[in-house]
Amino acid sequence: MALLPYSLILLLLSIPLPSALAAGLGTVPVNGTCNLANNGLDPDTRRFVTDCDATGYCSSQGVCEPKGCRKDQYAFGYGSNPQPPLCPSGTFCPDEENICLPLIDVGSPCQLNRDDECAPPPNSDDLSSSMNSNGSVCLSFTCQWQNATIGSPCIVENVAYTGYGSHGSVFIQVVSRDNCKTPESYCDGSQRVCMRVKAVGDSCGGDKECGSYNCHNGACGQSPGAPRQLKTWEYVITGVGIVLLMVGIFVVLFVVHRRQRDSRRAEIAAYWQEQTSYRRSLFAMQSAYPSLSRPGSGTMYALAPSSPSMTTFAESDTMRGREGWTMHTEDSRTELVGGSSSSLDAGGGPEPSARDSGTEKKRTGPL
């Protein structure tokens, strides 16, 4: 593109478009018809808009052509399709993104906020900062070097941007830029003279007046990216809090474990008390019947069948052997009425012996 048409485009960019017109731009596909007069800046966002969509630009013939370069690392609207190339060093891609152009000398027209379009000064290493591009800035659509020192006249550019809150509220944000050497100075808006930036805590009217570039509630605050410096008493309180927390955890665990041990100890004590009470009841039962010895293997027991209490004890005792108490030997027999003898088993009934059976047979004879 020739220099004269390019200057005309830059002049058109300085004229904000109406909101209704800007809202209808950017819909014409590549090879579609466009109007070069609609190229301009959105009045709210100051973004460059055109009739063509994100992949094309409006040429001087009124046709949307594919973009020949890109100014962003990741271009919008391409998806997986191939993107146009980035411009090499010493050149730049304008807002139209049609072709790479050489850098602009100081005093020449440039596009809004496109510091990268301006050629760097000879001492770019000394003037370069985060507030410019290699020591150059684009102020009022003109390339300038940001080299004005403290006390010297300066140039100010104030650009208003419209923002929208989460609930639809509208607010205006003004961005002020100047050609004073940064970051140690700024251009005073009323005196138009470069002044030294203010320290944290000083009163301010804008971010550029603070060395931290953060003016909050009329006073310079800490830089948003500055690390927080903790005081000694904050470290002490934090350490004491950590120690108290650890001690509290140990105390809680000790109390909980002690209650668990006490509960377990109470269960064991109740168990042994029950066993002791049971054993004492057995001793009391044995004392109630002194004629009854503790059963053992191979021991014979002589029980009188005429004693109901002894028979009842033998039948109901839960401590007898699995096979019960049984009298078998002849020594265990007792004389019954009529000279008969019998033996008692666990069932309790008398069982006649062979001798007794014979005696009964004799008695059954004729008298």
TrEMBL record:
Taxonomic superkingdom: Eukaryota
Keywords per UniProt: Membrane, Signal, Transmembrane, Transmembrane helix
Residue segments, region Disordered: 325-367
Spans through the membrane: 235-256
Signal peptide stretch: 1-22
Biased amino acid composition, Basic and acidic residues: 325-334, 353-367
Protein name, UniProt field: Uncharacterized protein
Annotated organism of origin: Calocera cornea HHB12733
